[in-house]
Amino acid sequence: MRIAVITEVSTADKNSEIMRGLESSNHQIFNLGMKSAASSPHLTTVETGFMSAVVLNLKCVDLVIGGCGTGQGYMNSVLQYPGVVCGLITNPLDAWLFSQINAGNCISLALNKGYGWAGEINLKYIFEHLLETPAGGGYPKERKEPQRQIRNNLRAVSDAVHYPIENALKVLDQDMVEHALKYEDFYKFILENGQSDIPLYKEIKQLCEKIVAYV
Description:
Elements: E1 2-5, H1 15-21, E2 28-31, H2 45-57, E3 63-68, H3 72-78, E4 86-89, H4 92-102, E5 106-110, H5 119-131, H6 144-161, H7 165-168, H8 174-181, H9 184-193, H10 199-212
Parallel strand pairs: 1-2, 1-3, 3-5, 4-5
Helix pairs in contact: 1-5, 2-3, 2-8, 4-5
């Protein structure tokens, strides 16, 4: 599995703990957001939500790990976009149930609220339970098929009520878009790993060439 970690400013100091928690996962991990409080530019949850939606819609990764102080702001940000199924995860049971029932492609972590002694151990166990079993197995097991149908219905709702993200680019706040796309690790990653036959890729590539002169 290809996993992106996209950290915003209020929790940038937790990035190293997230990465350590994923060390034994045997998946490809891409650290695309802020890596410390000294990273520049500072990224807000509005920007990391946009960035997460872009890497998912370009099919660069299979899962995004994000969050904020409470996890609520990032979750609300990323859920504004099509193609995103995000859960607020605070403990290992949340992680396992989200994987088995919702089979989502994004999680939001509460990285300040309630993050105290042994917080890094909780993160490690969250990732182990999130990734230990193939997603969508169902819980209880006899609910596997109805839960799959519910996920399909939810995707159809998302497609119906959202702009395609390449169209949304034209109406989004351009300062926010440009601020996110100036983040070097991010724009290089999406241009090198995005599927070029997806309409969004062409729009993003043109923006990146205009903003950061990256080819």
